[in-house]
Each structure stands twice: as C-alpha cells, then as structure tokens.
Amino acid sequence: MCLMAGSLAGCAGGSDNFFTPSAGGGGSTLGNLLAFNTTNAGPVPASAANQEQPLQCPQIEVLDGTASIRSYIGTDQGNGNVRYQYSMGDVARECSRSGDQVVIKVGVEGRVLLGPAGAPGSFTIPVRIAVRRENDQKASAVKLYQVPATVAAGDTQGEFTLVSDPLTVPYIQAHADEDYTILVGFDEHGGAPAGKAPVKPRKKGGRG
Asked: Which residues are CB-neighbours of 20 under 8 A, at least 6 positions away?
C-alpha cells in the first residue's frame, strides 16, 4: 500500500497522457482556508522580526506515483476503457508550535475526471497524509481520509478540497523543515467509489 507508516517509499506508477494532473503549488485560496477557515484572506500577521527562531514548516511533497488514480472497465487498460481518474491539484500546509509539539495542518485540492467509460455520480477519494522523520525515514504521523466528491449530470469533472485534522509531531528545533517532510498522495487501496465495496483478491490455491 502506498504511503504506509513503514519506509514511506514512493510508489511506482505508469502514465500515458490521457489526463494530466495539475501541478502542486499551494494556492492562496487553499492557504487562506488552512489559516483562517475561509477562502478570504485574514488579518495581516504581526511582524516576526522580534522572534529569534521562527518555526520553519516542513516541506510538503506529493509522492511519485500517487498524484493520480485511474480506474478501468475490464482488464484492458486502454484509454477507451477509463472510467474515472482522481488527480491531485494544489497542496498547502500550515504549522505552529504548541509546547513540545509541532502542529501541522495540510490542505489538498484535486479533481475527479470522467473517462470515456465513466458516468457522473458520487465518489469517495482516498487521500493519505503522512509526516516523515528525516533521521530514520519513518512516519511520525499518518492519517487516511475518505474525501467526498461529485460529478454532476452533464459534467465531465468535479472538484474536491480537504483540510486535514491537526497532525502533531515532537518539536526538535525551530528548523522543523530539517527534521520532517510532509507527504501527500492518493492511496489506491484506501477506498472505492461510493456505493461500491472494494473487491477482495482471491488467495492462491483457494476455492470460491
């Protein structure tokens, strides 16, 4: 499973050019949603000039191979059999210190795009967020979200937005960007379209 709490290595994944995911960037609208719980900009923060060591938020990355999930009808994975694709868009993060903890919130925007074999409806999108310790490459915090999205009748795509719960990791130093990395990606085995249960693989040598 991608983005698990072990090694957190990138997941391999091929792609043709039927869909092109948006580039991650952390847009201002998403940043405002994280900081102020609204898409409107909040008050200008007080100057940090007097702070000797302002907290440096860890960098946020979308793991290779987890920026999109594509579903097909049947076993032929040609463009004509694409049902839908989940595509990652902008990502953003906000950090603060609370005692001996660093508190991190992550925002994710993305799209559901219908393929030639797809149909409008409701979808449940599995997004996994992890905070990796850099000294041992292990996960210090992991959270899987099932994000709802809808493609309306007559449309070919829909959008979704996720603002995570606060994720806490131990405070080591003000340069938290040297101690941690925030990882975001779709978890291909973490969910299924709404109303459809995931298919369990058969055991080798078993019956039924």
From this structure: 87
